[in-house]
Design goal:
The complex is a heterodimer. Helices cover 59% and strands 11% of the residues of chain A. By secondary structure, chain A is an alpha+beta fold. Chain A folds into three domains: 109 residues, no CATH class; 79 residues, Substrate Binding Domain Of Dnak, Chain:A, Domain 2; 170 residues, L,D-transpeptidase catalytic domain-like (Beta Barrel), CATH 2.40.440.10. The radius of gyration of chain A is 43 Å and the shape is rod-shaped. Chain B is mainly α. Chain B has two domains: 85 residues, no CATH class; 95 residues, no CATH class. Chain B contains seven helices and no strands. Chain B is rod-shaped and about 115 Å long. The chains are: A alpha+beta, B mainly alpha. Chains A and B meet through helix 1, helix 2, helix 4, helix 5 and helix 6 of A and helix 4, helix 6 and helix 7 of B.
Chain lengths: 370, 230
């Protein structure tokens, strides 16, 4: 009987103390930083949704590193005896992670917005530049290298537009930057060359004025060739009577320097000889008195300073002739008209008729506006 | 005796229950991680980025829940196990979706590559028929250069396709296709314009009418100041 009382007492003691022990264990168990970790996780998630891993990569990666470190530390603490655990460091890392993630989110939103605006502006400005210059440079020849660069620039610009449309702003920015370099650099070079070309405009203008005055004074015909516009103007008595399209030498930019350079010369000339159709393969021809004294002087100067090889010759046989109408500059330096128009010019011209060849009869500002 | 046996059985049952709830579902964790890795290998980050991010976030949350349970005296991994099962299924779906999307992009690249080659050939034919006025010739020269750039882009896109970078290939070939199509439209319009006016396809500019018609462009104006002698 006494033995059963004792067993029941022991059982009761265990039954009462066991839950007490459990309650005490729960009470004094250190609490892990659940809410801090949750907040850090949510902050990272929101930052990533706003592309912080792309547009604020450094900060985002740092935030992720803090979170991962917090997890590792948390798991380490969990390995320890329950009352030895200390989650303060974990909580600190979690807070750092959340703070850095929020910073990366804000940076990303700001960067994305700024980048988007910048890219759109640049794309629009490049498209405007291309439109503005297309017409100008259909007349003035671009080198094949320049054309290639502009073409590559256009392709990259289109790739930038596609990436922009997909919200891939970093890729769009890269493509657009490359496109901008190719296009603006090419047009800057071409524009610089064009400005150089027009440096002689004052001289050309004086030649044109003299030629028109001569036509007026003599009540006779004079011919003016405008290379930039590819025009042949026929004046009679100081008034323009005819205007024809002209085709020039392949390297028409600048004056003629030597034989074989396929350049159309610039200067004040006269018709030296009329050549009938049976004596030329170009329908009819008017031979000019190129080279004149200025041409010879310039040629001699180039030879003596070595800018032309010593065995170079000045060239000649520059004519106004027929067989034109091909739509391209194809001659060896001559001025080609259509056969029908050549008939008109051939009829009115004679030996001694002034023929003035200039780079342009209008200045660059007028060309730009036109 | 009977009581002792009953108490012993109760103790064993209690230990069994507690230990089964308290076991970290490592096998399930490993399986889910493997499925996510497989989705990454299937380029889910490229082809279905939002879905892939969602599954990664889900796993991150589950690991945090598991760590919370490990912090406790009486661990309960039951809910985490259930979440792991659904995340595993999701990861498998993401991998499958990525593969399907990749195949779709691949097909689009193939179609565009075939299409652009046709447009390029057509452009070459159209160029031979395009009007060759004074400005037409210069424009054709520029178009010829652009066609060369387009063909170079096609080669690059083909290279990216052969490497399996279908998304990059698609972006490149789309840009090239847009340029080629633009040129195609430009050439057709130019040819139709010439046909519509009844002029021959290879047109020389018509001769201007004689003096009775005033010249459209200004004649050279008299010099305001004397020009320097050349």
């Amino acid at each position: 009987m006494r033995k059963s009382w004792r067993n029941e007492l022991i059982f009761a003691a265990i039954a009462i103390s066991a839950p007490l022990i459990v309650i005490l264990l729960i009470q004094f168990t250190p609490l892990p930083p659940i809410s801090e970790m949750k907040f850090a996780r949510e902050s990272l998630s929101e930052a990533k949704m706003n592309n912080a891993d792309t547009y604020s990569k450094t900060a985002f990666n740092k935030a992720k590193m803090y979170y991962d470190s917090a997890m590792i530390n948390w798991q380490k603490e969990n390995q320890k005896f329950i009352f030895s655990r200390n989650y303060e460091h974990v909580a600190r890392l979690a807070k750092l992670s959340a703070k850095t993630a929020n910073q990366s989110y804000e940076n990303s939103v700001s960067s994305t917005s700024n980048l988007k605006i910048k890219i759109k502006q640049k794309i629009d400005s490049l498209n405007d530049l291309l439109s503005e210059n297309t017409e100008l440079f259909t007349t003035y020849p671009l080198t094949s290298d320049t054309r290639n660069r502009i073409s590559m620039g256009k392709m990259l610009l289109r790739e930038a537009e596609i990436a922009y449309g997909k919200g891939q702003y970093q890729q769009a920015n890269r493509k657009m930057t490359d496109a901008e370099y190719l296009i603006t650099d090419s047009y800057n070079n071409a524009s610089s060359n064009l400005k150089n070309y027009f440096k002689s405009f004052t001289t050309w203008k004086s030649w044109v004025d003299k030629t028109i005055n001569t036509s007026k004074k003599n009540s006779d015909y004079s011919i003016i060739i405008d290379k930039f516009s590819r025009k042949c103007f026929v004046y009679q008595g100081g008034t323009k009577k005819y205007e024809f399209d002209a085709e020039l030498g392949r390297n028409w930019v600048g004056g003629k320097r030597a034989k074989g350079d396929k350049a159309t010369p610039e200067g004040m000339y006269k018709i030296a000889k009329k050549i009938d159709s049976n004596k030329t393969k170009y329908y009819k021809a008017l031979l000019l008195d190129y080279p004149n004294d200025e041409d010879r002087e310039r040629f001699r100067a180039e030879i003596s300073r070595g800018s032309l090889p010593p065995n170079a010759t000045i060239g000649g046989l520059i004519e106004i002739h027929g067989n034109g109408g091909k739509g391209i500059d194809w001659t060896e330096g001559c001025i080609a008209l259509t056969d029908k128009e050549m008939d008109i010019v051939f009829k009115i011209a004679k030996a001694g008729t002034p023929v003035t060849i200039v780079g342009s009869t209008v200045d660059l500002q007028y060309v730009d506006k036109r | 005796m009977k009581n002792k046996v009953l108490m012993g059985l109760a103790a064993i049952a209690m230990v069994a229950v507690l230990s089964s709830c308290g076991k970290k579902p490592q096998a399930e964790i490993d399986a889910t991680n493997a499925a996510i890795a497989a989705a990454k290998t299937a380029e889910a980050a490229v082809y279905v980025p939002a879905e892939f991010t969602a599954v990664q976030d889900s796993m991150t949350a589950i690991m945090a829940d598991i760590t919370v349970q490990e912090s406790k005296l009486f661990k309960k991994f039951g809910p985490a196990k259930l979440k792991l099962e659904s995340t595993l299924a999701l990861a498998n779906k993401v991998a499958a979706d990525a593969a399907a999307k990749k195949e779709e992009v691949k097909k689009e690249v193939e179609t565009t590559l075939t299409g652009i080659k046709t447009v390029i050939e057509e452009n070459k034919t159209l160029m031979s028929k395009a009007p060759r006025g004074k400005e037409g010739a210069a424009v054709l020269e520029q178009i010829k250069t652009e066609m060369a750039t387009i063909e170079a882009s096609v080669v690059e896109a083909q290279g990216l396709y052969d490497k399996g970078s279908y998304m990059d290939a698609l972006n490149k070939i789309k840009a090239a296709n847009d340029r080629a199509t633009g040129i195609n439209t430009e050439l057709k319009e130019a040819i139709d314009k010439v046909k519509g006016k009844g002029k021959p396809a290879v047109a020389a500019k018509p001769a201007p009418k004689p003096a009775a018609k005033p010249a459209a462009k200004p004649a050279a104006k008299p010099a305001a100041k004397p020009a320097p002698k050349k």
